């Protein structure tokens, strides 16, 4: 749905929509170009949006000085309705989104230091500049979701939609693959685990003695990249947002000046410090250390998997049986090792949707072929694992058909219905909303009717 696609862009552009808080636009002579209800859209707002779109590589299908103010005006319509409907975005949602974006920007430029240098701001200042725009984006998203509700379509609607599509409008489906996987987690020497625990005990002693702040140690040493940049702080979370082992210890903390015992989770080993409790939610900071896998153990795990792959090729057992019995990947072993695609809730992946290491191996494989063992980083917990994969199926790129691509066509029909519902709401909303557009900005071809009152 285009509105939701625009939201994604809006999130990517969030912190440079702050009317010059990051990009200085002192050379822009400001003026009010649109008024929507009680809210003004300034020329500087439009220019900030345009600059950020340019930075992100967005291409406008038309005049950006017509498209941008209309998009900003539509956002104001949603925000106004959200106030009337008491749509609320929690602080934890804002923090999580800000951290997600910060990590994305840092990954894009290479390091936190480079990001700070690029914008001539500290990380804290950049985060603060992002907050309100992130809050607005999340509010708009929630408002849209409330307006469309749960849209359902029937198979006959999908067939009718597809039947009525002109030949040149039938969507092209890129090549897709189905992949099965078996993973083995290399053994970690007890000496490595002992060393990690020793370091965490040293950190605890330094904090308890007043030698150094917990947050400083987290910035220096924590291997949870998302929270380390913020001194190890997590958002306000309920138990359901945490792994059970972490939650059990965190919710038992009472003294913000104390450090927890060492906690082992699937991500590694943590020490935790309480920041604040609010009812059934808690804010903590933590330091995560991950035991390192030695080259010796990686080689051993790779050899084990190569042996398993050879046994499958020799038909001693099937890939399905090996995945169910031997794979360490709990998310796939109960489904015969079949990888689920989180982007579309099916087992079919476009090549760019696969983890990079798997895509590289699968690209030139034949259907039914089993790979040699290779190493990869588990996207869920960041740990290095060894894997073998089997190419279960390859569906070459083609124009969509009901038989092969029903789910994709169903999603297109749902998005079309959602977009029409939101378009109707916008047009109806405009009938009762005061709008004034500067004369110099009235000559645009707008997406929605009703901006210019008769």
Summarize the structure.
This protein has 15 helices and twelve strands. The protein has helices at 2-12, 43-56, 64-84, 91-109, 112-119, 123-148, 155-164, 190-208, 214-221, 225-228, 244-250, 295-313, 319-326, 356-362, 402-431; strands at residues 32-36, 39-42, 172-173, 176-184, 263-265, 268-278, 281-289, 349-350, 374-377, 384-395, 398-399, 435-437.
Please tell me how large the radius of gyration is: 26 Å
The unreliable regions are 1-26
How far is the N terminus from the C terminus? 30 Å
Q: Topology as H/E string? A: HEEHHHHHHEEHHHHEEEHHEHEEEHE
The counted number of beta strands is 12
CATH architectural grouping of the largest domain = Orthogonal Bundle
Q: Indicate the percent of residues in helices.
A: 40-55%
- Would you identify the CATH H-level superfamily of the largest domain? Porin chaperone SurA, peptide-binding domain
- Widest sheet: strand ordering: 8-4-10-9
Largest sheet: 4 strands, antiparallel
Individual helix count: 15
- What coarse outline follows from CA principal-axis ratios? globular
List the helices and strands and how they pair.
Blueprint: H1 2-12, E1 32-36, E2 39-42, H2 43-56, H3 64-84, H4 91-109, H5 112-119, H6 123-148, H7 155-164, E3 172-173, E4 176-184, H8 190-208, H9 214-221, H10 225-228, H11 244-250, E5 263-265, E6 268-278, E7 281-289, H12 295-313, H13 319-326, E8 349-350, H14 356-362, E9 374-377, E10 384-395, E11 398-399, H15 402-431, E12 435-437
Antiparallel strand pairs: 1-2, 1-12, 3-11, 4-8, 4-10, 5-6, 6-7, 9-10
Helix pairs in contact: 1-6, 2-3, 3-6, 4-6, 7-15
């Amino acid at each position: 749905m285009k509105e939701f696609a625009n939201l994604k862009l809006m999130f990517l552009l969030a912190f440079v929509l702050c009317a010059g808080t990051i990009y200085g636009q002192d050379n822009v002579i400001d003026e009010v170009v649109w008024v929507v209800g009680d809210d003004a859209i300034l020329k500087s707002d439009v220019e900030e949006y345009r600059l950020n779109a340019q930075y992100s590589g967005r291409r406008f299908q038309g005049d950006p000085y017509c498209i941008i103010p209309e998009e900003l005006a539509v956002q104001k319509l949603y925000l106004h309705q959200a106030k009337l409907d008491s749509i609320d975005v929690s602080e934890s949602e804002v923090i999580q989104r800000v951290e997600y974006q910060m990590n994305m920007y840092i990954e894009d430029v290479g390091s936190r230091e480079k990001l700070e240098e690029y914008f001539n701001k500290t990380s804290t200042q950049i985060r603060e500049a992002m907050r309100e725009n992130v809050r607005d984006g999340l509010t708009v998203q929630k408002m849209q979701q409330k307006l469309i509700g749960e849209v359902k379509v029937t198979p006959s609607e999908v067939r009718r939609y597809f039947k009525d599509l002109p030949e040149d409008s039938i969507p092209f489906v890129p090549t897709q693959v189905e992949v099965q996987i078996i993973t083995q987690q290399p053994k970690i020497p007890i000496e490595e685990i002992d060393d990690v625990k020793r370091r965490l005990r040293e950190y605890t002693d330094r904090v308890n003695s007043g030698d150094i702040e917990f947050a400083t140690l987290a910035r220096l040493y924590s291997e949870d990249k998302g929270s380390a940049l913020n001194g190890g702080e997590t958002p306000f979370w309920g138990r359901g947002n945490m792994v059970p082992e972490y939650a059990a210890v965190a919710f038992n903390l009472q003294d913000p000046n104390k450090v927890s015992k060492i906690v082992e989770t699937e991500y590694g080993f943590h020490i935790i410090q309480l920041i604040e409790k609010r009812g059934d939610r808690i804010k903590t900071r933590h330091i995560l250390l991950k035991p390192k896998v030695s080259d010796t153990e990686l080689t051993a795990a790779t050899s084990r998997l190569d042996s398993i792959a050879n046994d499958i090729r020799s038909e001693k057992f099937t890939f399905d049986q090996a995945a169910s019995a031997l794979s360490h990947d709990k998310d796939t072993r109960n489904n015969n090792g079949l990888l689920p695609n989180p982007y579309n809730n099916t087992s079919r992946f476009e090549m760019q949707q696969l983890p990079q290491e798997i895509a590289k191996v699968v690209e030139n494989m034949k259907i039914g072929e089993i790979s040699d063992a290779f190493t990869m980083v588990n996207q869920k917990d960041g740990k290095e694992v060894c894997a073998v994969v089997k190419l279960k199926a390859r569906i070459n790129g083609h124009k969509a058909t009901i038989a092969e691509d029903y789910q994709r066509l169903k999603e297109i029909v749902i998005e079309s219905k959602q977009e029409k519902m939101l378009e109707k709401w916008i047009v109806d909303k405009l009938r009762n909303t005061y709008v004034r557009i500067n004369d110099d900005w009235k000559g645009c071809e707008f997406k929605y009717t009703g901006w210019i009152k008769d």
